[in-house]
Amino acid sequence: MSAPTPTATPVPLESVELACDFGPLKLRSPILTASGCFAYGQQFAEFMDLRQIGGLSTKGISPLPRHGNPLPRIYETASGMINSIGLENVGCEAFLTEKLPFLADLDVSVWVNFFGTDFETYVDCAKTLSEGGEGRIDVLEMNISCPNIKKGGIEFGTVPEVAHRLTKACVEASEVPIVVKLTPNVSDIVAMAQAVKEAGAIGVSLINTITAMAIDVRSRRSRIATTYGGLSGPAIKPVALRMVHQVAKALPGFPICGMGGILTGEDVLEYFIAGAHCVQLGTINFSEPGAALRVTRELRELMAELGIERVQDAVATLGGYEAEPAHAEVSPWA
Amino acid sequence: MKRAVAMAQFQVEVVANRALTGGYFVLELASEQDNAVGGAQPGQFVMLRGEWGRDLLNGRAFSVLEAIDARRFTVMLKVFGRGTGKMREMQPGERMTVTGPLGRGFPQPDAQPDGGAGSGRKQLLVAGGVGLPPLHFHARRLVGRGKADAVEMFYGGRSAAELVLTEALDEWGVQTVLATDDGSRGVEGRVTVPLTARLDAAAEAGEAVEILACGPTPMLAAVRELGLARGVPTSLCLEEMMACGFGVCLGCAVPVYGPKPYKYCCTDGPVFDAKEVRW
Ligand SMILES: Cc1cc2nc3c(=O)[nH]c(=O)nc-3n(C[C@H](O)[C@H](O)[C@H](O)COP(=O)(O)OP(=O)(O)OC[C@H]3O[C@@H](n4cnc5c(N)ncnc54)[C@H](O)[C@@H]3O)c2cc1C
Ligand SMILES: Cc1cc2nc3c(=O)[nH]c(=O)nc-3n(C[C@H](O)[C@H](O)[C@H](O)COP(=O)(O)O)c2cc1C
Ligand code: FES
């Protein structure tokens, strides 16, 4: 191994600044919590001071309330879990009246994750949330990637032209900036990111869950009632990092919110180095509801140790290996 | 939805890991400071996780068997898979993370000191397998309040070895009927056999009873059938797959009749009215 380890000069903890930019947005901290893993926030107030997180992404909202999928809906696998919740949510109207006021009071970056069941309902939803939000929503995070809805949805997340058209229509319908959450279940993630960037999205969230399954050999049934579900947790982090890096390399400077399997401050730093500008924590919130604050503390300490004062000093800084000396039959040292 | 006790997450140490017969074991856990589980109601549960790194990520749900004091409590379990397998091997001194107490407990048979109204009916507790802990805890609480005669226990297992912690019930003077599939202890057959006889006797005598049941799903289904056919109020303590235990993952859905097709085992339950469960 020829790559030298950069020598780090530690800096004092106090000189680490976590406030950072995500495109036009100012974030108090780059650590947010992920959609579907934080409900609408309230439950977590019992476990921690929510004002210390950078922001949160809500459970995916659709124009009308939705009931979820039959059970079993979840199954734990090696270093991860599969879910097929079915995008159960309270619907736009109840969200705006019952859930949003609590979030707005927190004074953190509020990302409202949303989806529709077809083109029109996507646009409707963006418009309703943008108008009804009355300035209390910072980002509409458009989920074009859910593997768990049956009707038509799959093309929105997998065909660049379709994603472009849908994103453009939502961007035009919404005053609130749009971040598109991409599915990893595609062969060319860069083409998808490029398409939504050109359509006016201010950034992308990467990644949603990876389509997966597990089987009970005794009953010979899938462990999930809908047969397939989405895999999340540490098991998917290597795939997510690779995708963040591919997009960051192809679209330098385009804001990426990275996620997938983050458990520690070191995981977050890996995402920054790969090219993410901020991150979201998902599955870890289930077993450790206060995780976002621990991870924030760990990130701050690690940045201090490695002499990284600001988030942007780490973003997209992946180094390469030096070329090996050419092979020869006889060693030049002989 | 106001809880009796606020939930919290805290660290505990394994104080003891005691093997019972039939593969069951009891873990006694203690925290350094007073913890919220000390105030747990019977039927409430905790999510437990050991220091297992990046695998076995989610907590595992276990009913509280006994809240000994403000720092110590126990759970009773059996090996089902990877998580419970690790727990079987845990040694005193090892650490775990607890989230709890979670969910809502059993209805009470009589008026509560805090003013809550009870049913006034005699409670027939029906337990099978790992369904024993919450009912055992419920009986213990009532005995502690001098109400041993407010409950009767019906407890079934495959064989004598699978019936555990029965000495305590005897000691407390809780009337207990045991049943084993192979007849090695108590009545031969399913626990529903003596339960049926008891329900019929109650009907005959015009005695007001209710059923609280916890155990394997086929047992619960049979108990529901028996209870509801006779117009006896029946509560079932259910188990569903859980990732969080506090209402955010939406994994633990329970199909119900009513305005919405699902409720949640962790926040609406785990105790449900048998009439509303949609199986
Ligand atoms: C409210 C409640 C109370 C419970 N009380 C007790 C108790 O007192 N004693 C006891 O022995 N068991 C109890 N269980 C069941 C216990 O949670 C499971 O046996 C345990 O999670 C299995 O974990 P594992 O890692 O060994 O199994 P694995 O199969 O390896 O676990 C995989 C995943 O499935 C989940 N899971 C598997 N089986 C069950 C199940 N039956 N119910 C819920 N989740 C499951 C696990 O939580 C885990 O996420 C209770 C379950 C619930 C929901
Ligand atoms: C139970 C569950 C529900 C989820 N629901 C949503 C959702 O409604 N909308 C969405 O965009 N992503 C949803 N996700 C995906 C997460 O936001 C996140 O992208 C993914 O889990 C990867 O991060 P993690 O490994 O940290 O969990 C869900 C994930 C889980 C585990
Ligand atoms: S276990 Fe997560 S909602 Fe019930």
From TrEMBL, chain A:
GO annotation, cellular component aspect: cytoplasm
Reaction(s) catalysed (UniProt annotation): (S)-dihydroorotate + A = orotate + AH2
Protein localization: Cytoplasm
The protein, known as: Dihydroorotate dehydrogenase
Function description: Catalyzes the conversion of dihydroorotate to orotate.
Keyword field contains Cell wall biogenesis/degradation: no
Pfam families assigned: DHO_dh
Pathway(s) the chain acts in: Pyrimidine metabolism; UMP biosynthesis via de novo pathway
Organism: Plesiocystis pacifica SIR-1
Main localisation: cytoplasm
Domain of life: Bacteria
Major enzyme class: oxidoreductase
Transmembrane helix in keyword set: no
Biological process (GO), any one: 'de novo' pyrimidine nucleobase biosynthetic process
Gene: pyrD
NCBIfam families referenced in this protein's UniProt entry, alphabetically: PRK07259.1, pyrD_sub1_fam
Cofactor note: Binds 1 FMN per subunit.
Cofactor(s) of this protein: FMN
Alphabetized UniProt keyword annotations: Cytoplasm, Flavoprotein, FMN, Oxidoreductase, Pyrimidine biosynthesis
UniProtKB/TrEMBL annotation, chain B:
Record PANTHER family: DIHYDROOROTATE DEHYDROGENASE B (NAD(+)), ELECTRON TRANSFER SUBUNIT, DIHYDROOROTATE DEHYDROGENASE B (NAD(+)), ELECTRON TRANSFER SUBUNIT-RELATED
Alphabetical list of InterPro entries matching this protein: Cyt_c3_hydrogenase_gsu, Dihydroorotate_DH_ele_sf, Dihydroorotate_DH_Fe-S-bd, FAD-bd_FR_type, FNR_nucleotide-bd, OxRdtase_FAD/NAD-bd, PyrK_electron_transfer, Riboflavin_synthase-like_b-brl
Pfam families: DHODB_Fe-S_bind (PF10418), NAD_binding_1 (PF00175)
Domain FAD-binding FR-type span(s) in chain numbering: 7-108
Binding site for FAD: 60-63, 83-84
Matching CDD domains: DHOD_e_trans
Biological processes per GO annotation: pyrimidine nucleotide biosynthetic process
The protein's name: Oxidoreductase FAD/NAD(P)-binding protein
Named cofactor requirement(s): FAD; [2Fe-2S] cluster
Cofactor binding note: Binds 1 FAD per subunit.
GO terms for MF: 2 iron, 2 sulfur cluster binding; flavin adenine dinucleotide binding; metal ion binding; oxidoreductase activity
Binding-site list for [2Fe-2S] cluster: 244, 249, 252, 266
Family to which the UniProt record says this protein belongs: Belongs to the PyrK family.
Keywords per UniProt: 2Fe-2S, Electron transport, FAD, Flavoprotein, Iron, Iron-sulfur, Metal-binding, Transport
